[in-house]
């Protein structure tokens, strides 16, 4: 079963608003990843984090690797309609381990 | 297009039939992963290969499931005696040697419907 928890489960926001979502685990991870998935497509990697406390940006997206190594956060600034999709956090416990996915946060942007 | 390619994109089969899916990874990627995704859930790990060696299999992979990667290139995932609970999206991903910055790229998936 899933070892990662994501919140919120879904979000409905107005275009232009900022978005925050998070991911928690009961286990320590040494890599945190954030993916976006659109209908009928495979997940696409947005941001990868490798060090505790690391803050990384990709355009309007910013993600942080939690200090405890048990959580991560994703922020999207000034949302636009094409941000719609499901955002998954994912992680690896060791460098050579498989990637485990959370259940996802569904984002809807109202124009 | 040099991304991960999966075939077929959609498969409808009757319960009890066998199905086989194919995944062609990005050229020279030595790791290949299979995941299963059901509606409203994140991808669940099934198995992965490093070159032709199958290194890990999930408990989700019952004895009806088998995966191969002959010659360390493309991979196939076979499901025997399909059940309705097998209906899902089957995702394949590939990556180069694991190190920072070489995360997996996913294909578009094969959606299986068992009727």
Would you kindly provide a written description of the structure presented here, covering whatever features stand out?
The complex is a heterodimer of chains A (111) and B (115). Chain A has 111 residues and is mostly beta strands. In chain A, 0% of the residues lie in helices and 54% in strands. In chain A, the strands form two sheets. In chain A, strands 2, 4, 5, 9, 10 and 11 form a six-stranded mixed beta sheet that branches. Chain A has a five-stranded antiparallel beta sheet with strand order 1-3-8-7-6, with no helix packed on it. Chain A is globular and about 40 Å long. In chain B, a hairpin with a 2-residue loop joins strand 5 and strand 6 (53-57). Chain B is an all-beta fold and 115 residues long. In chain B, strands 2, 4, 5, 6, 9, 10 and 11 form a seven-stranded mixed beta sheet that branches. Chain B has strands spanning 5-7, 10-13, 19-24, 31-37, 44-50, 53-57, 65-68, 75-79, 88-95, 105-106, 110-114. Chain B contains no helices and eleven strands. Chain B is globular, with a radius of gyration of 13 Å. Classes of the chains: A mainly beta (111), B mainly beta (115).
Largest interface by residue count? A-B, 22 and 24 residues
Shape of chain B: globular
Describe the global form of chain A: globular
* Average residue-wise pLDDT of chain A: 94
Q: Catalogue the unreliable spans of chain B.
A: none
Helix fraction of chain A, binned, reads under 10%
Number of H/I helices of chain B: 0
Distance between the first and last residues' Cα of chain B? 33 Å
Number of strands of chain B: 11
- Mean pLDDT level of chain B: 92
Radius of gyration of chain B (Å) = 13 Å
């Amino acid at each position: 079963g899933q070892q990662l928890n994501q919140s919120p489960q879904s979000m409905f926001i107005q275009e232009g608003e900022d978005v925050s979502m998070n991911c928690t685990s009961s286990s320590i991870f040494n890599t945190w990843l954030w993916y976006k998935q659109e209908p009928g497509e495979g997940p696409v990697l947005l941001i990868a984090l490798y060090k505790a406390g690391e803050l990384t940006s990709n355009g309007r997206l910013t993600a942080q690797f939690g200090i405890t190594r048990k959580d991560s956060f994703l922020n999207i600034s000034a949302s636009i309609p094409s941000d719609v999709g499901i955002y998954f956090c994912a992680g690896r416990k060791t460098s050579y381990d498989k990637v485990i996915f959370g259940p996802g946060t569904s984002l809807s942007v109202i124009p | 297009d040099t991304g991960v390619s999966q075939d077929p994109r959609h498969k409808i089969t009757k319960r009890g039939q066998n199905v086989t899916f194919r995944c062609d990874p990005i050229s020279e990627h030595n790791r290949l992963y299979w995941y299963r995704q059901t509606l409203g859930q994140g991808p669940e790990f099934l198995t992965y290969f490093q070159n032709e060696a199958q290194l890990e299999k999930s408990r989700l992979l019952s004895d009806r499931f088998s995966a191969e990667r002959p010659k360390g290139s493309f991979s196939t995932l076979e499901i025997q005696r399909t059940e309705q609970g097998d209906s899902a999206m089957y995702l394949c991903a590939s990556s180069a040697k694991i190190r920072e910055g070489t995360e997996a790229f996913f294909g578009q998936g094969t959606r299986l419907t068992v009727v």
